[in-house]
Design goal:
By secondary structure, the protein is α+β, with helices and mostly antiparallel strands. It is 48% helix and 11% strand. Helix 4 packs parallel to helix 6.
Amino acid sequence: MPESDARSTALALSSAPTQAIEVLRPLSDEDQRVVDALKERPRSPATIRAYQEDWRCFTEWCSKRGQQSFPANEDTIIAFLGSFGLGARPATLRRRVATIRIMHRGWGAPLPTLYNVQTALENIKRGRTQQGLPNEIQKRALVADEIIEATRRLPKTLVGVRDRAVLLFGWAIGQRRADIAALRVEDVRPFEGGLYVTIPRSKTDQSGKTHTVSVLREGGVGCPVAALEAWLEAADIQTGPLMRRFHRSGAVDRRALSGHAIGIIVKQAAKLLGYDAREYGGHSLRRGFVTTADRAGRSMSEIMDTTGHRELKTVRKYVERSPNPMHAAGRGLLKVKEPESEPRETTEAFGQTLVKVTRFERAGRPYDARKQAALLIKAGKTRAQAVEALARIGVTRLGRPIVVEDLA
């Protein structure tokens, strides 16, 4: 198109709207409500309830002290945070600051960057540290062998069958307690060797973008697939919610378990192990999965593919660290090569018989791998499966992962 024709076409197009509409009017109230709703970032109902409570708390505090809650100034916000002393956790205070910012932005008065508010939050956090108060309270992880042991101690009842499925299957998919509670039979489909589980949405993704988790049929007492199948068969569940509550009559209800109820099941499992139930909750499953996978040498990308985490720094917070020689950054750096003639295994004489003594370790401590392997074999695993299970929980021999030949 020649330049002159292009210029004339552009002028014609740019003038067309003004020729068609002489007077511009603002959007109607109904249209503006639609626009505001679509511009709002998707948030879970629990997050919205927390924001509502935070804003109510802030406005009531301002009203009692004769301060202006909207628009609020920096000193008012700092005084509000300081009114809690050292009694509120930094995460709670950060959320309340976020609530104040969200409300101001929503009403057309966005707050500037409040550097002094951030300094106040840091000072509160430092003060709690000096007083010996925890700043970040996280539920402790339940790792694989703890989950298996807890399920062994469950009662042989229909409730016990359900709780076993919640613990093993919920642990294996590595999701939040609310995501476990929201699963339906339709979200699970079989494949040769296990199950595909579609997570329809999560706390950090309210748009419904799904991701799929593979759960393998491991066999033995800790198999998550077998645990789920046993529950669905015993409860005669074919459609609808996967994990269900019980009616007071003892019958299986049609309604799904809540995330809170799943947290209670985990706490009860911790009590069965002799732990302080207050330190455990629904998140102990997700943390336990990440921690166990990390200790077994799974890559962070593999872990994130299962858990749905987007940020590496976030998933790293889930790993409950323990002294693990396989993860020591300095492993082998100062090692001096041993002479070829020096044996790496020792033998001890008992009467006329020489018995080979092989040192197995887990987390830097001696570990009776032979005994554990014998228990796994008795439970139905092959020798190779038993060795693979021990390797997954970090059992080593002479500084390397255990292999089948070590048990010969």
